[in-house]
Amino acid sequence: MEQRIRVTITDGVADVRLSRPDKMNALDQAMFDALVQTGQSLIEDRSVRAVVLSGEGRAFCAGLDMGRFQSMAPAAADDASTRQATEWRLGRRTHGLSNASQYAVMVWRDIPVPVIAAVHGAALGGGFQVALGADIRFVAPDTKMSVMEIKWGLVPDMGGVELMRHLARGDLIRELTYTGRVFSGTEAHAMGFATHVCDDPYVRAMALAREIAGKSPHAVRAGKRLMALADNADAATILQAESDEQIALMGSPNQTESVRANLEKRAPVFADPEP
Questions:
Q1: Quick check: 168 and 202 in contact, CB under 8 A?
Q2: How many H-runs (helices) and E-runs (strands) does the chain carry?
Q3: List of long-range contacts for 198-201, beta carbons under 8 Å, 24+ apart
Q4: At what angle do helices 217-230 and 253-263 cross, to 10 degrees?
Q5: Per-residue pLDDT tens for 101-113?
Q6: How far apart are CA 210 and CA 225, in angstroms?
Q7: Which pLDDT belongs to residue 76?
Q8: Which CATH number, 1.10.150.120, 3.90.226.10, 1.20.1290.10, 3.20.20.370, labels domain 5-212?
Q9: Which residues are bridge partners to 196 per DSSP?
Q10: How many CB atoms lie within 10 A of CB 114?
Q11: What is the CA radius of gyration of the chain?
Q12: What are phi and psi for residue 113, nearest 5 degrees?
């Protein structure tokens, strides 16, 4: 995992960096595995209060490694054994609703604290989908982004369709999926894929992560659960969940500490959630 992703945790902020700069952090099997393993380890770490996801070097993530495309050639040529292996690998649900490749993106939604992506250089194809897995995206204006799978005769299949539909208009998503055209970070913001456009996404993302890490971790986690539920649930379910989360928070130690710290005009001291 350390050969593909570097993780440093300081004061509750997990600094997660894709670390294959010589290949623009392209997605080979080792990178897929590292994304899943890193995400799963952060799910279990109760000391983590926010996550920043970025890429080292010239790009956030340039998409699938070319070797990955070359491995698809036998399947495209009707090699029966390879095709069966591909069908098994993609069709099998290994992580809840997701297959293993999809979970390299969807795991960031399963992390119980906010994940903030700092995107620069390029986020193409699978790399674009990894960025979509974050809760919030800071993007440099000149970042090159693309739903690039059509270039290779494919469709986005790492959770991209599920995630895009909550961020942008359907006609825009269709255009990008059918054409694979490259668009800028500025355009991404106008379409809804980028939360903020800024010259230094990493600095901005880290600042926001530190701010979030200073809030009650129980309330932040409750907020993320509500936001995830709101993506697909009906009004009755969402309203009930709001009440349930609020009941659990009111009078709890961290909620009481929030009130006291504000009244006493001091920085709060919060306890990490119990396992």
A1: no
A2: 12, 9
A3: 198/138, 198/139, 198/140, 198/141, 199/140, 199/141, 200/140, 201/54, 201/117, 201/118, 201/119, 201/120, 201/138, 201/139, 201/140
A4: 110
A5: 999 999 999 999 9
A6: 20
A7: 55
A8: 3.90.226.10
A9: 138
A10: 23
A11: 20
A12: -120, 165
In the block, residue with structure tokens 């010259």: 199
The type of residue at 35 is: L
State the SS3 of 74-90.
Answer: HHHCCCHHHHHHHHHHH
* CA distance linking residue 64 with residue 68, whole number of Å: 6
* CA–CA distances in Å: residue 260 to residues 148, 234, 252: 51, 36, 12
Mean pLDDT of the chain: 93
Query: Quick count: other Cβ atoms within 10 Å of Cβ 249?
Result: 17
Q: What are phi and psi of 34, to 5 degrees?
A: -65, -40
Tokens of 8: 């440093």
Cα separation of 62 and 127, whole Å? 6
The total number of residues written for the chain in this structure: 275
For the cut 60, the answer to whether the pLDDT of residue 265 exceeds it is yes
Cα distances (Å, whole numbers) of residue 46 to 100, 111, 175 = 24, 11, 41
Q: Give the residue extent of every domain in the chain.
A: 5-212, 216-263
pTM: 0.92
Q: How far apart are CA 171 and CA 67, in angstroms?
A: 32
Fold assignment, 216-263: Lyase 2-enoyl-coa Hydratase; Chain  A, domain 2 (1.10.12)
